[in-house]
Amino acid sequence: MSNRQKKALFCVCGALSFACVLGAAVAVGSPQWVKGSILCHTGAELVNATDSELEQFVGRVAYGLFHGQRLRQCGLGGRPLRFSFFPDLMGVIPMGLHVSVLLFCALLVVFSSVTSAFCLYNAFGSPYETLHGPLGLYLWNLISCLCGSLAMILFASEVKVHRLSEKIANFNERSFVYKTQAEQFDRSFWIILFVFLTHAVNILLVRLAGIQFPFQEAKEPELSTGASDLMY
Question: Per the record, GO CC terms (predicted)?
Answer without folding.
Answer: ciliary transition zone; membrane; presynapse; stereocilium bundle
